[in-house]
Amino acid sequence: MSPTRKRTKELKRLRSSAEELWGAQQDLLANANAVAAEARRQAANYTREELAPRVRDGYHTYVRPAAQSARQAASEMAGSARDRLVSDVIPAVGATIGTAMSVVDHARDARARAFIGDVRNEVRSAGKDISKKAQAVTEKSGPSAGTVIAVGLGIIAAIGLLYAVWQTFRADDELWVADEEPTAPVAE
């Protein structure tokens, strides 16, 4: 089904209106871009001609003298602060640390003596218990499996060591290099 003539005319009018609107928007965007580019250029000029000299003058007038006076004051104070630190603070801190360490050592010593006494008592009672249990257990006869394995490993290690020594000291004529230089055969 095709649209009527009336609808076709309305669609053509609508299409032409949309195209006009699109063209107007394109012109508006082009003009906006031109204005923005000009504003950017003017802002750069203003910054270069007005702001940069003011900032430079303010730096030389306010910041640089303040930094120099602060540096001078710091260097003057550093000397007196260093002297004060070396003569007053370091000895006081050292004395405080020494006193604290002696108090800690004394406290440790008292606790250590008490702990050692407790351990001695425990060891004595454990020794008495072990001796009672040892008397109750019958003695085993012969070497244990661990002893046999240890002796076997010792013998194997000794044999390996003896073999290495024998290989080192055997007389092998192929291993030795003659001290004399070889002589060239006589040509006839």
* Secondary structural class: mainly alpha
User: Which regions are unreliable across 5 or more consecutive residues at pLDDT < 50?
Assistant: none
**What's the gyration radius in Å?**
52 Å
SSE string:
HH
Describe the largest sheet.
none
Mean pLDDT over the full residue set: 79
The gross shape turns out to be extended
The tally of strands reads 0
Please count the helical segments.
Answer: 2
In percent terms, what proportion of residues is strand? under 5%
Q: What separation lies between the terminal Cα atoms? A: 123 Å
What fraction, in percent, of the residue positions are helical? over 70%
Q: How are the SSEs placed, and which strands pair?
A:
Layout: H1 5-136, H2 145-169
Top keywords for this entry?
188 residues; mainly alpha; extended
Structural write-up:
The chain has 188 residues and is mainly α. The chain is 84% helix and 0% strand. The protein is extended, with a radius of gyration of 52 Å. It starts with a helix and ends in a 19-residue tail after the last helix. The mean pLDDT is 79.
